[in-house]
Amino acid sequence: MDPWTPHDLRRTAATNMSALGFPDETVDAVLNHVKKGVIAIYNRHGYDKEKQQALEAWERRLKIITTGAEGAKVIPLRR
Q1: How far apart (Å, rounded) are the C-alpha atoms in residues 44 and 74?
Q2: DSSP H helical segments within 20-68, as ranges?
Q3: What whole-number distance in Å separates Cα of residue 40 and Cα of residue 4?
Q4: Can you give the pLDDT at residue 79?
């Protein structure tokens, strides 16, 4: 396994929020990515409601993963 970094948490969260069906705009807002080009000029929406929904969905998914509930596929890692 490659060395772990805190950035891996961001990547994992972003990937899973996308897998849960959230659009790139919402995931980018959660990650606090800066809007670029024309979008930065015209789209002033803060995505607060969408960010909250995405993060709460990720929280529920994490709870399933960590508790093994709802048939989550938890694979134990060998030492």
Answers
A1: 40
A2: 24-30, 37-42, 48-67
A3: 33
A4: 64
| Residue 46: both structure tokens together | 């803060």
List all residues 6 or more positions away from 58 whose beta carbon is below 8 Å from its beta carbon: 13, 16, 17, 20
Q: Residue 46: CB partners within 8 Å, gap ≥ 6?
A: 29
Which of 48, 62, 79 is closest to 20 using CA atoms? 62
pTM of the model: 0.80
Residue 28 CB partners (closer than 8 Å, separation 6+): 35
Give domain limits for the chain: 7-69
Alpha carbon 66 to chain centroid distance?
A: 16
